[in-house]
Amino acid sequence: MSDVAPRTRALNPLPSLIFSSRWLQLPLYLGLIVAQGVYVYLFVKELLHLIAATPHLGEQEIMLIVLGLIDVVMISNLLVMVIVGGYETFVSRLRLEDHPDQPEWLSHVNASVLKVKLAMAIIGISSIHLLKSFIEVGMVGGLPLCSSLDGIAAVRAMSEAGLTMKACTTITKDGVLWQTIIHSVFIISALGIAWTDKLMTGAASKREHAHAH
């Protein structure tokens, strides 16, 4: 048995140019890596703020900050999926087959799988935002709108007292209602994407089975 690897057939100039154009996406993924660094900075900044302000914060305010930290982590996870999965799918192989830290989902990633995973990640991020809005609207005593006179006065009073507690909100009950509707649309869209992917996978499997026989 020969150990010589099969030679890659040379492409004509035009197909080679078109295929090589995929490398134009490389700066986009490098830019997302920079964005990942920005989110790391934001996470550390919010964490230090939580540690420093904990003695002056109530339970619900701490919960809002923690949910904000979780939100940053989930967006960071989404960035990793787009960077790693997108590069692997559309640019070039990462060749991580024997790497001990290879993500489990990367072993069978393709455009359809990546699309479903991204949809589920977006739903998770939307859920965190919706939960933050529910907590903020339902805080004991309620918070005045930041654009109202009461909200401006509350912010000024907190600033003069040297406190870092949340003094006003930009969330309204109508805003929460619209967030809920949009979140529901995200869920329906993700189900539609998953169902379409299942139909396409089933059709492809039937064709392969028919060709095999």
Automatic annotation (TrEMBL):
<dbReference type="Pfam" id="PF03350">
    <property type="entry name" value="UPF0114"/>
</dbReference>
<dbReference type="InterPro" id="IPR020761">
    <property type="entry name" value="UPF0114_bac"/>
</dbReference>
<keyword id="KW-1133">Transmembrane helix</keyword>
<dbReference type="InterPro" id="IPR005134">
    <property type="entry name" value="UPF0114"/>
</dbReference>
<feature type="transmembrane region" description="Helical">
    <location>
        <begin position="176"/>
        <end position="196"/>
    </location>
</feature>
<dbReference type="GO" id="GO:0005886">
    <property type="term" value="C:plasma membrane"/>
</dbReference>
<protein>
    <recommendedName>
        <fullName>UPF0114 protein GN331_03620</fullName>
    </recommendedName>
</protein>
<feature type="transmembrane region" description="Helical">
    <location>
        <begin position="26"/>
        <end position="44"/>
    </location>
</feature>
<comment type="similarity">
    <text>Belongs to the UPF0114 family.</text>
</comment>
<keyword id="KW-1003">Cell membrane</keyword>
<feature type="transmembrane region" description="Helical">
    <location>
        <begin position="64"/>
        <end position="85"/>
    </location>
</feature>
<keyword id="KW-0472">Membrane</keyword>
<keyword id="KW-0812">Transmembrane</keyword>
